[in-house]
Design goal:
With 447 residues, this protein is α/β, with parallel strands linked by helices. The protein is 51% helix and 14% strand. Helix 4 (75-91) crosses helix 20.
């Protein structure tokens, strides 16, 4: 009993330390940030929402029950939120939804995705006053955190106010679980305040349980991100993209998507070797972080190659005339995948966990990736089981295997068809996640 009481005291101390640390950071940094918003005019409106002061129009839209708040931090989670929201609408008809994001790009995509049907707001800073104000204004019945979003203050405050909470489409990577386990007593207590865990796969379920989640609250329901992929593929879109990009039907196109720091040179090395066999190959390189575009441009120039930025012609101001295009905007990569002959998923030749290989697979493309795919192990396993993915460990191996596929178009077509079939066979996760949310709403209503 004494040991248990001491553990509870330690956990409470850890939470108090977290609140004290985040509060101190907020209070110390806020004046400088506020002055910055006044001088530059940036983030002024955003700041109010992040502090929990929400527009009246948002409240006026939330007229029905249950009221469900979906938190989708950035671009990837926003795409998942669309699938989850659609499924919730079928399982819990008549409910009110609100979606929150953290990043500016996430907010833009969310507004474009949901248009006027679902209000989109900025999430509150994980500072107790901001969180309390947001929760008090929206008064949700259910609060949904997507994928890896675990915000201690937000979770504690929601639990204190009797709001049902769920981690949905839950994904815990190998790297992140190691960080969580360093302070396991703290996160065990945080997770104890979450009512349901609807995880993507067995590995994710095992990791969240290792962090301290109650196994009786854990379910495995697949990845809702893939539900919309099949429906998003439109052959007419590919035709329009080929016109925009000045591509003929026989052109060979290499697309390197979501490339991370350290991979840029590798991609260009592989491309250089591919050009030795197929000198007419076009390269599209899309960095995961847009601030890398100028660096990539300098690398290309140092090799004496011509290039254009995506924005040089995508807005109708001109045409693609160069063999290399640097994609310097967000939100276009999925459409660009439609014209690819071979696609490489970035973040995988460097130890960063990879990117989603099923987006190009949905278009029927042969997908290459490196050895680091921990963040998308379920997707990699699916492609591997279907004989549809190509794993490479170096630029040399990438170039060698790419040349092999380009020299045998029939093999390219067969493997691409396998990739698309693999994606089409894994839909339906959104409905499963929505049923978990529905069950949580019913149990909260009874209690």
């Amino acid at each position: 009993m004494i040991y248990r009481e001491s553990k509870i005291k330690i956990v409470k101390m850890l939470y108090c330390a977290y609140v004290a640390l985040t509060s101190a950071m907020f209070i110390s940094l806020f004046p400088a940030f506020w002055i910055y918003t006044r001088i530059t005019g940036k983030y002024g409106g955003d700041l109010k929402e992040r502090l929990g002061v929400l527009p009246k129009e948002t409240m006026q839209c939330l007229t029905r029950r249950p009221r469900i708040w979906i938190h989708a931090a950035s671009l990837g989670e926003v795409k998942v939120s669309a699938s989850i929201a659609e499924a919730i609408g079928m399982v819990i008809p008549g409910c009110s939804l609100v979606v929150s994001t953290i990043t500016e790009h996430g907010r833009s995509l969310a507004r474009e995705t949901f248009e006027e049907t679902v209000p989109v707001i900025y999430a509150p800073i994980d500072f107790f006053r901001s969180v309390r104000r947001s929760l008090s204004m929206i008064r949700p019945d259910i609060l949904i955190f997507l994928e890896t979003e675990i915000w201690p203050v937000w979770i504690y405050e929601a639990h204190r106010m009797g709001i049902g909470t769920a981690l949905v489409n839950g994904r815990i990577s190998v790297r992140s679980v190691k960080r969580y386990l360093k302070v396991k007593p703290f996160f065990r207590d945080v997770l104890n305040h979450i009512d349901a865990f609807s995880m993507i796969g067995e590995a994710d379920a095992a990791r969240i349980q290792a962090m301290g989640a109650d196994p009786e609250r854990i379910q495995i329901n697949g990845n809702a991100k893939y539900d919309l992929l099949g429906r998003s593929v439109n052959p007419e879109l590919e035709g329009r993209m080929r016109q925009v990009l000045n591509l003929q039907g026989f052109d060979r196109v290499l697309i390197a998507g979501s490339v991370r720091e350290g991979e840029e040179r590798m991609i260009l090395d592989a491309y250089e070797k591919i050009l030795e066999q197929f000198p007419d190959t076009v390269l599209f390189i899309a960095p995961r972080h847009l601030e890398r575009t100028q660096f990539i441009a300098s690398l290309i120039e140092s090799r004496g190659w011509g290039f254009q930025f995506w924005t040089d012609f995508s807005r109708g101001d001109g045409a693609r005339t160069k063999p290399i295009v640097i994609v310097n905007v967000f939100g276009e990569l999925f459409k660009i995948y439609s014209v690819g002959t071979i696609v490489f998923c970035g973040g995988s030749l460097v130890p960063l966990g990879g990117q989603n290989p099923l987006e190009p697979a949905a278009w029927g493309k042969v997908v290459f990736y490196g050895p680091s795919m921990e963040n998308f192990s379920d997707a990699e396993a699916l492609l591997k089981a279907s004989g549809a993915g190509v794993r490479v460990s170096s630029p040399e191996e990438f170039a060698q295997k790419a040349v092999g596929f380009l020299a045998h178009p029939e093999k390219l077509k067969i493997q691409g068809e396998r990739a698309r079939a693999a994606v089409m066979n894994i839909t339906g996760a959104g409905i499963k996640h929505a049923r978990v949310i529905s069950g949580l709403w019913k149990s909260n209503s009874i209690s």
